[in-house]
Specification:
The complex is a heterodimer of chains A (436) and B (81). Chain A is an alpha+beta fold and 436 residues long. Chain A contains 15 helices and 12 strands. Chain A is globular. In chain B, 0% of the residues lie in helices and 44% in strands. The chains are: A alpha+beta (436), B mainly beta (81).
């Protein structure tokens, strides 16, 4: 048995905990660079704002409908997520944190009324963190996700499903006929793993509801689509095929890329940016105990803005596999200098560390001594470890390589975040204020 | 607030996991803002008292609820900001 716990409109809910005046108002949270809506309150959804709506298309609603738009505050959302996940774990013996706002919880061996237990956990999360959640339970992960979707829809749209399914719904406790009714009432596109492309193909083949998909022969799913869809069909039929994954493997590539708040054409600023991104990627690299053997740097102009277009990338091989910030920042800077071309307004650059290997594997090489090359054989791993400890304790970027320039919002290339709320739970200067 | 042991500029530790009990200092949400009050709960009736008597008590009307955001468990006095 599996449960899927997820926060309702998670980013908006986090903001509302510390700014109750946002309750019951249309609120959206904007992506990096205040580009598009990545979270919407129910009131905002009722205004017809679709997911990923570009900001410039909906900003008129500020005046006309009292819409409040906030810049994404990932520091806050990450901390609130930690708290929510810790409490959600109380639902069962195993947990797989799937994303910032969703978690599977294994219910193996949990006895008693699962819905009652689910309600208690939901209530605790709401009381202790202020985040409203929905919980779906079923025999497989795919069905648990579906049950969660139904619990959410039953609450938000009265009449779509029986009212007792709202908030916490255990699909496995339902009689088979009732399950069929529920699957019949749900669109096939709402199934986990069935995206727009596949649901369009399924609909063309006459498969419109989840019940239709459940009745498909798994072999047909594999033949016509993929083994992934076959697993989905089997899971819908009640056969668990996807395990709890409580420790996802190390990433094969680590990227750090950003769009700029405004276009940048100066080499100096671009070198600063890629040095910073290389440093951030290096931190993630060390955290997963990997080394990089190659580094890719890319840059491009905006296809949406007028002016000449340019898109370039270069792969910089590293002399030996490394996780050293200084070596990676230098490689990124060298790559940028190599491919830079003046006269273009660049809107995005990025660094991707590729061909990663575990740091436990030490590769040696013949020292064919190039007299012109600076010796970089000195082991700086203690320096890196110290840097990580200091940056964790005192804040990101407390210690940084010189190539990244002076930190702060006055860098030419920082992203636009004009409406970000304070870091209420992680920064003492930002804690909320209460009056007498 | 002074009579409650809370002074202007104090840093409060607020616990949302505790269920507020009569006599405790709480952070409540009134008109969308955070406010620090003392909870009075008698015979099923609830009101929020300000420690400073020049501020009015907050008494929820019939059917209205005032949200208790959390219980103040400590107050840290700051002498240097």
């Amino acid at each position: 048995m599996f449960a899927l716990v997820d926060g309702n409109n998670f980013y908006v809910s986090c903001e509302r905990v510390f700014r109750p005046s946002l309750n019951e108002r249309p609120v959206v949270v904007l992506s990096n660079n205040d580009g598009c809506a990545i979270a919407r309150s129910n009131e905002a959804k009722d205004l017809g704002i679709p997911m990923a709506a570009p900001w410039f298309k909906i900003r008129h609603l500020e005046e006309s409908a009292g819409l409040v738009a906030l810049s994404a505050n990932f520091v806050l959302y990450g901390d609130m997520s930690d708290r929510m996940m810790t409490l959600a774990a109380g639902l069962g013996p195993t947990q797989e944190i799937y994303s910032i706002d969703e978690s599977f919880v294994g219910l193996h061996g949990v006895r008693g009324d699962l819905v009652a237990r689910g309600r208690k956990v939901r209530e605790r999360i709401l009381q202790w963190t202020g985040i409203p959640t929905c919980i779906g339970m079923a025999q497989t992960k795919t069905l648990a996700k579906l049950a969660n979707h139904i619990a959410k829809t039953a609450e938000r749209k009265p009449g779509s499903y029986p009212a007792e399914f709202a908030q916490v719904f255990n699909m496995s406790a339902l009689p088979a006929q009732d399950v069929d009714d529920v699957l019949q009432a749900t669109d096939v596109g709402d199934v986990w793993g069935v995206g727009t492309r596949i649901s369009k193909q399924l609909r063309e083949g006459g498969i419109r509801t989840v019940l239709d998909l459940t009745r498909m022969d798994p072999a047909t799913a594999r033949r016509g689509w993929s083994v992934t869809l076959e697993k989905t069909v089997r899971e819908l039929q009640g056969q668990p095929c996807i395990d709890m994954d409580d420790a996802p493997g190390p990433k094969q590539q680590i990227a750090c890329t950003r769009s700029f708040g405004k276009p940048v054409h100066q080499l100096g600023a671009l070198v600063e940016a890629v040095s910073e991104f290389a440093a951030r990627a290096a931190e993630k690299l060390r955290k997963q105990n990997s080394l990089a053997t190659e580094l890719l740097v890319f840059m491009h102009t905006s296809p949406y803005r007028p002016g000449p277009q340019c898109s370039r990338s270069v792969v910089v091989p590293l002399r030996r596999p490394t996780d050293d910030t200084l070596a990676l920042a230098k490689a990124a800077a060298d790559g940028m200098r190599f491919m830079y071309i003046a006269g273009y307004q660049f809107i995005k650059v990025g660094v991707i560390l590729v061909d990663l290997q575990p740091s436990s594997v030490q590769q040696r090489e013949l020292d064919l001594g190039d007299p012109n090359e600076l010796p970089t054989t000195r082991d700086r791993s203690r320096l890196m470890a110290t840097m990580d400890v200091i940056n964790t304790r005192f804040g990101k970027g407390t210690l940084h390589s010189g190539g990244t320039g002076k930190p702060g919002a006055n860098r030419v290339w920082t992203m636009k975040q004009e409406r970000r709320t304070p870091a209420y739970t992680t920064c003492l200067e930002d804690v909320p204020v209460a009056r007498a | 607030m002074r009579d409650m042991g809370i002074d202007d500029g104090d840093l409060l530790v607020v616990d949302r996991a505790l269920r507020a009990v009569h006599g405790q200092n709480v952070v409540a949400v009134v008109d969308g803002e955070f406010t620090v009050k003392q909870l009075h709960q008698r015979a099923g009736k609830m009101k929020l008292k300000a420690a400073n008597p020049t501020f009015p008590d907050i008494v929820p009307k019939d059917g209205q609820t005032v949200e208790i955001w959390g219980v103040v468990t400590s107050s840290i006095k700051r002498f240097v900001f």
